[in-house]
Amino acid sequence: IYSALSEFETLPDRFPDMYKSLKVVERPEKDMVIVEEDLEIAGRRIHQKTRHTLLQGNGIKSQVLEGDTKGTVIEIMLKQNDDPASTDITINADLQLGKLGKVLGIFAKGKIKQGLEKVIEGLESGQTSRPT
User: Fold this and answer.
1) Residue 59 neighbours by CB distance under 10 Å
2) What's the pTM value of the predicted model, to 2 decimals?
3) Whose CA is closest to 48, among 76, 78, 74?
4) d(CA 122, CA 72)
5) Residue 8 to residues 2, 95, 112, Cα–Cα distance (Å)
6) What does the radius of gyration of the chain's CA atoms come to, in whole angstroms?
7) Closest CA to 33 of 76, 58, 62
8) What is the pLDDT of residues 94-110, one digit of tens each?
């Protein structure tokens, strides 16, 4: 799961329903990448610049630097269970929706969290939206 999350360039191939495009614009540190990405969330297309920081094999922290959701911070934490085939996944999200929130309405945060959970479920099961 960690490998799939950390291979940023492959996200549009793995999840074409969510990631419409992704371009790495900078790698300021070994475990950090800044990308420009076009996403489709809750039926709306958004463009944003995001900093993704890998958390020593335990997860990823993403912070939106520019765009309609500027200031959003999402942490996806991974914890190996006693069963080597099982991993606990925790998503913490501080969503800043700005204009997007006005367009999507009061259910915007729920729609975005559902989208994230769907992506994580796909990673857990090994099934992504990747075309065959």
Assistant:
1) 21
2) 0.73
3) 74
4) 23
5) 11, 21, 19
6) 14
7) 62
8) 877 666 555 454 455 56
